[in-house]
Design a protein that fits this description.
Elements lengths: L5 E9 L2 E6 L2 E7 L1 H11 L4 E5 L4 H17 L4 E4 L5 H10 L3 E4 L1 H5 L2 H10 L4 E11 L5 E9 L4 E6 H11 L3 E6 L11 H10 L4 E4 L8 H7 L3 E4 L1 H4 L5 H10 L6
Parallel strand pairs: 1-4, 1-12, 4-5, 5-6, 6-7, 7-10, 10-11, 11-12
Antiparallel strand pairs: 1-2, 2-3, 7-8, 8-9
Helix pairs in contact: 1-2, 6-7
């Protein structure tokens, strides 16, 4: 039997509120994270992803409390990321109610963190969050290559995105949240080329993120190799529902739960 494609709402949380912008700027309020999580659970979301987009020390306790409250009300897998730097951070989030934990910047700085988390908690707990942007030449034209970025896509990490995703899988990451920073918030469709390139080199599950705007955008991401599709603003502001997306995938012959 084919594996069912997962549909995942993403809640970008800043100081206890869900926010959303375009290319990670011009953020606007999208609601209460616990309430949105409850609604998405009722709508049939397969999982939820929380990302603490500022990840400051001042917001850390707020994040733990949101995770606790959500885990009490919503009974689908919950992935939490943003500001995770150590194995102890992962431990605290799991104890608060997270099922999986996303790592990004800290893994770039010290890739051994991936193996340490996988060894202690199992690969199924660790999601590598890769914020990826197309490389530009001196004339600001795309080169056809992709680079890993940090700081909301504003700084290059000096890593080839495909090579980094492959290495993360070898180190023990359980899946990859592949976020196109060029497409983020644009509602112009997922970056199918990026998904295809990473899929060729990576055997662990891929979550496609960035660019969802219409129900027609989701099937091409799955056909390119995504095991799950993630979206934010189109769900938060009522432009699409979880049911709309699942029905469109079904109509395209793609199994969903």
């Amino acid at each position: 039997m084919p594996v069912a494609t997962r549909v995942i709402p993403c809640l970008d949380v800043d100081a206890g509120r869900v926010v959303k912008g375009v290319n990670f700027v011009d953020l606007r309020d999208a609601g209460d994270p616990v309430e949105l999580a409850r609604v998405y659970g009722e709508q049939g979301a397969d999982e939820l992803t929380f990302l603490d987009v500022t990840a400051s020390s001042g917001n850390r306790e707020t994040t733990y409390e949101i995770v606790r409250q959500t885990a009490e009300q919503v009974f689908i897998p919950l992935t939490v990321g943003g500001g995770v730097r150590t194995v102890d951070d992962v431990d605290r989030l799991l104890r608060a109610g997270a099922d999986k934990v996303g790592v990004n910047t800290a893994a770039i700085a010290r890739p051994e963190l991936i193996a340490e988390v996988a060894d202690r908690f199992g690969s199924q707990v660790l999601v590598l969050s890769a914020d990826v942007r197309r490389r530009l030449d001196d004339s600001r034209r795309p080169t056809g290559d992709f680079e890993v970025t940090t700081h909301g896509g504003r700084q290059g990490a000096g890593l080839d995105a495909v090579e980094w995703c492959a290495r993360a899988g070898e180190l023990g990451a359980g899946e990859i949240l592949l976020n196109s920073m060029d497409a983020d918030g644009t509602k112009a469709g997922f970056d199918v080329e990026l998904i295809e390139l990473v899929r060729r080199e990576v055997r662990i599950p891929l979550i496609a993120s960035g660019g969802a705007g219409r129900v027609e955008h989701f099937a091409p991401a799955v056909r390119a190799g995504a095991d799950a599709v993630l979206a934010a603003s189109v769900f938060h502001f009522g432009e699409l529902s979880i049911g709309d997306v699942k029905e469109a995938l079904r109509q395209d012959g793609i199994p969903v739960r």
